[in-house]
UniProtKB/TrEMBL annotation:
<keyword id="KW-0001">2Fe-2S</keyword>
<keyword id="KW-0534">Nitrate assimilation</keyword>
<dbReference type="GO" id="GO:0046872">
    <property type="term" value="F:metal ion binding"/>
</dbReference>
<dbReference type="InterPro" id="IPR012748">
    <property type="entry name" value="Rieske-like_NirD"/>
</dbReference>
<dbReference type="GO" id="GO:0051537">
    <property type="term" value="F:2 iron, 2 sulfur cluster binding"/>
</dbReference>
<dbReference type="GO" id="GO:0042128">
    <property type="term" value="P:nitrate assimilation"/>
</dbReference>
<dbReference type="InterPro" id="IPR017941">
    <property type="entry name" value="Rieske_2Fe-2S"/>
</dbReference>
<dbReference type="GO" id="GO:0008942">
    <property type="term" value="F:nitrite reductase [NAD(P)H] activity"/>
</dbReference>
<dbReference type="InterPro" id="IPR036922">
    <property type="entry name" value="Rieske_2Fe-2S_sf"/>
</dbReference>
<keyword id="KW-0479">Metal-binding</keyword>
<keyword id="KW-0408">Iron</keyword>
<feature type="domain" description="Rieske">
    <location>
        <begin position="11"/>
        <end position="107"/>
    </location>
</feature>
<protein>
    <submittedName>
        <fullName>Nitrite reductase (NAD(P)H) small subunit</fullName>
    </submittedName>
</protein>
<dbReference type="Pfam" id="PF00355">
    <property type="entry name" value="Rieske"/>
</dbReference>
<keyword id="KW-0411">Iron-sulfur</keyword>
<keyword id="KW-0560">Oxidoreductase</keyword>
Length: 113
């Protein structure tokens, strides 16, 4: 996937669902921010900043299972929907709204939080 360019439209086409392996992720860059776009086993798409809320581990390199990703560094489990750590761990990474139009993936960068 390519770097993003900002325009007046909040939704940005970032690629096709077919660019992302099932239970995997691909990264896109928005200025200084790296965003990991995840695909679940049942073809849902989520986008989180590629930074674990624990110690900034690369979530894009984690294991996707159900609606979560396990961080490759210390195994925190992060909700793909909210970016929040699950279980006893606390913290949250930014999440971005995603829309699928056919096989095309659009990210909303303005509503990311
Ligand atoms: S950096 Fe992700 S669990 Fe520690």
């Amino acid at each position: 996937m390519n770097a993003l360019t900002r325009d007046s439209n909040a939704w940005h086409l970032v690629g096709s669902i077919d660019d992302i392996p099932s239970q995997g992720a691909r990264c896109v860059e928005n200025g200084e921010t790296k965003i990991a776009v995840f695909r679940t086993a049942d073809d849902r798409i989520f986008a989180l900043e590629d930074k674990c809320p624990h110690k900034n581990g690369p979530l894009s390199q984690g294991i996707v299972h159900g609606g979560c990703v396990t961080c490759p560094l210390h195994n925190w489990v992060i909700s793909l929907e909210t970016g929040a750590a699950t279980g006893a761990d606390e913290g949250r990474t930014a999440s971005f709204p995603v829309r699928l139009d056919g096989r095309d993936i659009y990210l909303n960068l303005e509503q990311g939080a």
